[in-house]
Design goal:
Keywords: Plasmid. Helices cover 11% and strands 53% of the residues. By secondary structure, the protein is mostly beta strands.
Length: 99
Amino acid sequence: MFSKYYNDKAYFDAVQNGAVYKCEIDSIQTIAGDNEPYKVAFTSTLTIYGVSGQKLRFLIRTKGEIVRTTPQFPENVTGFFFNQFIQQIVRIEQEPEKK
């Protein structure tokens, strides 16, 4: 799934600004369906490490429907395609560092 994000340049703004980012799936709420489209819902955390040392974190809630397509390298190596896709992105406030 994340290779699809990368190939679609879903986080292009982070990469364009010279930042390093890491995205981890925290939990999967739904993977359902006997036939296409399959319904999916998951929560992930995106951490962006800025070039000047700052670290930003975002909680991402994703819902959508996926279908299978013919895999194509490098655009879509998994063969999964979101035909409906909604994301809610909320910045996670950092607690001040204790000295």
